[in-house]
Amino acid sequence: MKKIIMDCDPGHDDALAMMLALASPEIDLLAVTSSAGNQTPEKTLNNAMRLLTLMHHQEIPVAGGNRTPLMQPLETAGNVHGKSGLDGADLPDPDFAVQDMTAIELIAKTLRESDDPVTLVVTGPMTNIALFLRVYPELKGKIDRIVFMGGAMGLGNWTPSVEFNIYVDPEAAKIVLNAGIPLTMAPLNVTHKAQILKPEIAAIGEINNPVANAFQGLLNFFEVYHENPKWGFKGAPLHDPCTIAWLLHPEMFESELMNVDVETQGELVRGETVCDYYELTGKPKNTDVLLDIDRPAFIQLIMDSLKTFK
């Protein structure tokens, strides 16, 4: 069983990633920490609590993290995720308390208490993880791997070559990518292929349990933003669930091991993940970069997972 901590900024696709983790008997979700990104810190923390309440996992400790990026003001994606950050479904109010500690304190406590190495799954900006590595460097060895959704090799979704999660806090991402911890990256190259189509969203409604019904509403809302023809999508790209899907079924993906670093200075490319695909720099290969996905198997995993809820 894989022990994980989720650091997220829910967010429709973060919600699906959390659902996949909770549905799988192969994953032990030890803690959830929230970051500011898709929406403001208050909203993302509340959304994480609402999701765990919806899925009846109030036993999982939750803590709120960064309120701003390390070096710049916070920019959010309310145009994608709506006013609440999870528009489209009527989610329950949290019926349990947030932990009386910060995100990095909860990560430290969880790592100390675990006999096994823990995987960090990061589906928002990397501010919490960068702060954790700076404040608790002695616990770095307890991290098995960091699996993150972020970055792009080529085309971005926030500026021409920059993906949103890295754009929000490039300095934090640079710290994490250069920390010497094994990394798996789900960039836009793979997440844009991980699309759910309108008939598949409709099929989720036929599962007919409260969790599936909520996710059908969330996905119907999320899909509308992606109908703009400029993207060339046939449905909605499910970015963040690729992290959990890879942990469960790495055979579902094609990947390449390469050096990845983050540009923090460039006038046009600040936040770009620079992926050394052709081994031009001689730098060590630090990141397993996911580049392709078996889309039908991925959608089937989501369907099967939703069916496990009562």
From TrEMBL:
User: Molecular function (GO) terms listed?
Assistant: purine nucleosidase activity
Record's keyword terms, sorted: Glycosidase, Hydrolase
- Domain Inosine/uridine-preferring nucleoside hydrolase, by residue range, is 4-299
Q: Which InterPro entries match?
A: Inosine/uridine_hydrolase_dom (IPR001910), IUNH (IPR023186), Ribo_hydro-like (IPR036452)
Tree of life domain = Bacteria
A Gene Ontology annotation in the biological process aspect, one of them, is: purine nucleoside catabolic process
Say if the entry is tagged with keyword Hydrolase: yes
Naming one, the record's GO cellular component terms include:
cytosol
The protein's name:
Ribosylpyrimidine nucleosidase
Give the source species: Levilactobacillus parabrevis ATCC 53295
Lineage, top ranks? Bacteria, Bacillati, Bacillota, Bacilli, Lactobacillales
